[in-house]
Design brief:
alpha+beta
């Protein structure tokens, strides 16, 4: 996520690939892959877009952090001002877009909500629904924000059902990172009388939080639903968000991946019980924490820069998902192999950046 433009103009994004398969495409919510209107989602495969060109915004003033991209609320790349709570506005836009679709045209709707991104500040009608057992101003607003989000998701699903598309629609609900304990009243955002105190995000029993590369920062639950296509159940195979592009493109018959150099792999055989994943290495970076990580099978290597030195931690996630026992000193050869793999994968970042 960043304010400068991320993609080159010829990048085959997921919505661009689906457009080629004659899908209507829409983004409602947060973009943050180029915060100038000329770098917005309408230039990278979305027929319609609405929400924040930048990152998370104030829920009532819809403003991003103070600076050149504070004014970020838009429709189709044109900045605008509206009144209302961000969750209600995004929900309404998504529902209206679904209901306006022609019945015979397939669609891809991407709804990256700003909830529960800071700063949280909820309407009274949602605060009154929070159990009295939850104490503290920020925790109560946070709980109300989750409930408000849940209701919005329900409205979007209901719109799909009303339009008779539920049996033809795959729904994926997931997150981009673990919970946060950052200060809600962040001075980088324009003042709007935000509740003061730390967010109560909890990733227990996992270690770490948003921004960190411990499991609490990067492992999130995902719910996938398609009546008549997928059998209810629980899957624990590790997968990555980048796996959704080859999965959805495969289902839509959009592209076959030749020449695209997929970062991910098709999840459909896993979701339908045909086979397990091939176990491709997974890779993460956290520039603000000066750290990188790589996972192969159950083994995960975490690299942190400490001044001019590099510190390494090694975990066996199959036996120790909470990352309590660092095995780097006793598994020297495994550390060496994973360090080489980390360097090999990270070289691809330089090529992409160039």
């Amino acid at each position: 996520p960043q304010n400068p433009r991320v993609f080159s103009e010829d990048t085959v994004t997921l919505p661009k690939a689906l457009q080629a398969a004659e899908y209507d495409t829409c983004l409602v919510g947060k973009w943050h892959l180029g915060s100038h209107p000329d770098d917005g989602p309408q230039h990278f495969g979305f027929d319609h877009s609405y929400g924040s060109l930048a990152g998370g915004v104030g829920p009532w003033n819809h403003s991003y952090k103070q600076g050149p991209f504070t004014e970020t609320w838009h429709r189709g790349g044109r900045l605008l001002r509206e009144s209302g709570h961000v969750t209600d506005l995004l929900c309404r836009e998504a529902v209206n877009w679904i209901e306006s679709r022609a019945a015979d045209v397939p669609f891809f709707l991407y709804v990256p909500m700003t909830a529960v991104h800071l700063p949280v500040k909820e309407p009274e009608e949602w605060l009154t629904r929070v159990p009295v057992s939850i104490q503290g101003e920020v925790p109560r607003h946070y709980a109300a924000c989750v409930t408000h989000l849940d209701d919005a998701v329900g409205q979007i699903v209901a719109a799909i059902e009303r339009t008779g598309r539920r049996q033809q629609t795959l729904i994926v609900f997931t997150s981009d990172n673990g919970g946060s304990t950052a200060e809600n009243h962040d001075p980088k955002y324009p003042e709007d009388d935000y509740p003061k105190g730390a967010l109560p995000g909890s990733n227990q029993p996992l270690r770490g939080e948003k921004g960190e590369l411990y499991e609490g920062g990067i492992r999130v639950p995902t719910v996938v639903s398609w009546p008549g296509k997928l059998i209810p159940g629980l899957m624990k195979s590790p997968v990555h968000v980048c796996d959704w592009m080859p999965t959805l493109c495969g289902l839509a018959g959009a592209v076959n991946g030749e020449g695209l150099n997929w970062d991910g792999e098709d999840l459909w055989p896993l979701l339908t019980g045909q086979r397990q994943m091939r176990g491709k290495a997974m890779y993460w970076t956290a520039p603000e924490f000066r750290s990188r990580a790589v996972r192969q099978g159950d083994w995960k290597l975490l690299e942190k820069r400490n001044g001019a030195e590099m510190d390494y931690q090694l975990f066996d996630l199959g036996k120790d998902p909470e990352e309590r026992t660092d095995l780097a000193s006793s598994e020297v050869e495994r550390v060496r192999v994973l360090r080489d793999l980390l360097e090999q994968i990270s070289r691809g970042d330089v090529r992409k950046a160039e």
